[in-house]
What we know:
- The complex is a heterodimer.
- Chain A has helices at 56-63, 85-91, 107-117, 122-135, 151-162, 181-198, 209-215, 233-239, 257-262, 285-299, 313-321; strands at 5-6, 9-10, 16-27, 30-41, 45-49, 71-76, 79-80, 92-95, 169-173, 201-206, 218-223, 226-231, 244-250, 267-274, 277-282, 303-310.
- Chain A is of the alpha/beta class.
- Chain A folds into 2 domains: 5-233, 3-Layer(aba) Sandwich (Rossmann fold), CATH 3.40.50.300; 241-310, 2-Layer Sandwich (Alpha-Beta Plaits).
- A 6-stranded mixed β-sheet of chain A has the order 8-9-10-5-11-12, sandwiched between helices. Chain A has a 4-stranded antiparallel β-sheet with strand order 4-3-6-7, covered by helices on one side. A 4-stranded antiparallel β-sheet of chain A has the order 14-15-13-16.
- A 5-stranded mixed β-sheet of chain B has the order 2-1-3-4-5, sandwiched between helices.
- By secondary structure, chain B is an alpha/beta fold.
Amino acid sequence: MSIRTRKGLHSGHQGQAISVENIVKKYGDFEAVKGVTFDVKDGEIFGLLGPNGAGKSTLIRMMTTLIPITSGKAFIDGYDVSENPDAARRVIGVIPQAMTSDIDLTITENMSIYAKLYGVPRAERERNIDELLEAVDLTKWRDAQVKTLSGGMRRRAEIARGLVHNPRIFFLDEPTTGLDPVSRVAVWEMLNKLKSHRQLTILITTHYMDEADRLCDRIAIVDHGQLVALDTPMALKTSVPGNNVVEVQFLKAPSGWAERLHDLSGVQSVQDEGSSMFRLLTSTGSQTTTALVELSVRAGVEIKTLTVQNTSLDDVFVHYTGRQLRDEQVKAFGFVMPPRPGMRS
Amino acid sequence: MNRMLAIIEREMRKFFRSPTLMITAMIFPLVQLIILGNAFGGKIRDARVAIVDEDHGNQAVRIREAFSSVESNVRTFVAVDYSDEVRAREDVRQGRLEGALIIPPQFSRRFYEGENPRLGMVVDNSDQFMANSLQTKMQELVNSLNSPAATAKRIPSDVALEIVELYPYIEYLKYLLPGSISLAMFVSVMIGGGMLYIDDKARGVHEGYLVTPITSMEMVLGLNLAGALKAIMAGCALTILGSLIAGLGSSFQPAHVLQWFLLICATSFAFNGLMFLLMVRVEDPLVPRAMFGILNTLLYFPSGAIYPVQAFPKWLRVISYVDPFSYAVHGLKATLLKEASWVAVSQDLLYLTVFGLVSLVISVPLFKRTL
């Protein structure tokens, strides 16, 4: 990759909205992000997938100029965020995890203030506000104070506010956390619509597998501050051995049971989940299931539950990280992620 | 029982994990004890009193000697020589002097001839405590001059002290008004510029600003001017309402309106600058709440709003000299109670403006443009 830096302008790869080069963030001795490299193409929805504490928010905060980069480079629309942060800020829209809209102001007032912060001329400002409120289906609520809105509506209002200056690149940090399933789906549909209508590049962080699967063109799996896999959801799923996952729980599995399961037809790997529960990755789901039932009957091991499903991003995550997506205690590393100012841990 | 203990445990754990709250809970009463204990009940010292000697006779010399004795012992006065009574009166009016002792022409002759020798004492009765203190001390001085031990037998007559009050009687309500106006601005700044600023930071509102192309200077100026505007509105509202309640009709004369309005603007700017400087690196929403009481005590009471600065010990006067409250109170007293000229408030306006500017200049580099 050829990178030339001139006055903070990156002229390396054409057609790339975001380019991150070996980026590192350290808090004292703790390395929250450990040399991550990736590119985001123009017009794609790119997902950063990982558990809480994986480093997703730290990455997004570095890319959006909110925290300084310890080492490495991040380019937004060709602008080096360390050398030319203001230019980078002009082309991005950011929806942080926290609610950044003022809850005492109305949706329109919040949008108008942000448009002014970006220097959007009056006529364009008013047009943008009308269009965006229509797009997020909040026209009826335009003069409602944000504090009177439901969680889903607030999130939609935030998204509209983040787009009021027509950014090229849109960052969303866990936009559906805390929303009910219906509101989540509404946000996904709205993001897809906005992306196609406004030619947006979207970078989204999430710890929801289904969200990443449904929304993203490409996904980067982040764990412990490192990028462990990056590809399209389909490619990631096919990269995992087996097309199906058989999840089975026995009443009481005898010793050496995992090895016997591994010998079944089509089984490529067996994960012992504890409590006599096993996950079998197989290329032939139906044959493996039949063989499994037969084996259990022969061995007198009673099956408690049995499910067969296609490979999901959960399996991808397990495959690449060796465990389930978890809400890990970062304190285990003797470090607490610095909270947002004023937030008490 | 266990459930109640759980609540107690939770509250105590929170309390002990918040050192700011713990410290301020202990410091606040201490600060109040020290400041209030010293601000009230002290004796007047080093009040600047002009001696206008229009007699130049022997008795005038005696009075000056007695005055010097007070000056070097109990130190109630600091004598300042004036040759012109009119100028001395004007300087009392403008707040440069606390009083003026007039030794009239022919005083010594009248004294020796027993023709009712009289001394004049001009006091600024907009500050009743100061005026009464000066009057009492001066009467003591005159009494001692009249006492047999100090007076030769051949001198037939006693000296009388005539008090000249510069203004009609000023009620305590009026006297307190400038302090209350300043306090209204301070409270507005404390809530609008301190608490809300930190609350917005904690809620994440500032995080939203930080990803926009706004510069540190624009953000600091925006926040400061917004805070100052809120304080100006509070100050103006209280001045108008307070003047109506206290019956200060002169407050509504155009020249005075401009004077107090500029003072309110400068005060709001200075207060907000101070508050922003104190809060610029604070992130815990508890801090401004905890500091409120301490700052209020530390700045309001030493300002001379309710007790004259001349009655404070030296160390408290130092606080008073740098405290923007003092200048706000002094300026508003001059314009609302004394109908003073621009000269009387020019120093206050200058100090408050410079104070605000300096605070702002220090705040800008301290302001963090990142999280």
